[in-house]
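Why does residue order matter? Because the sequence determines the fold. Keep that principle in mind as you read this record.
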Amino acid sequence: MAVWDTSVASGLHPDLPLFELASEAALAGEPFLLAAPTVHEIAFGLERRAGEDSRFGTQLAWFTELLDVGVLGVLPLSWEAALLAGRLRGRQPIPPTGATARAKRSRGPKPERRVAWITDIQIAATAWLAGESVCTADQDHFKTLSDAIAQLFPGEGRLQVLPPPEPGRH
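Structure:
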């Protein structure tokens, strides 16, 4: 099982194959996992846009229902994960520069990119402490975090970083 970061989980939509894949996994008793910071980031984005367009409010209600019925599982941000996230942020307080151009296009202004970086750190810490890999389209950020975790905890195993799932391939 892998923890979906926001770049993957935000692709959930009832008309897309990713939703079918998530539903099948939940029915098999193995729902895909989100870290609590991913839930926070998606809820924030949908709520912020709901005032402009009611479809985002509808999406937020649908996302809430997915969580409520267990189509997606959620890993909490424990104190251990918060501590690890703080240590990781202390080592790398700003996003890696290799991803800057893509981040500007996909995540908006600099303050928003930094908040997204902090969320990525929390997701990585949550997943690693749970013994799970991270499934993400943002390979640069999570590979940087995997390296930082390996430096902090040599011999403890790396955070595995996987590409987004491809519906139809299990």
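The longest strand covers residues 32-35.
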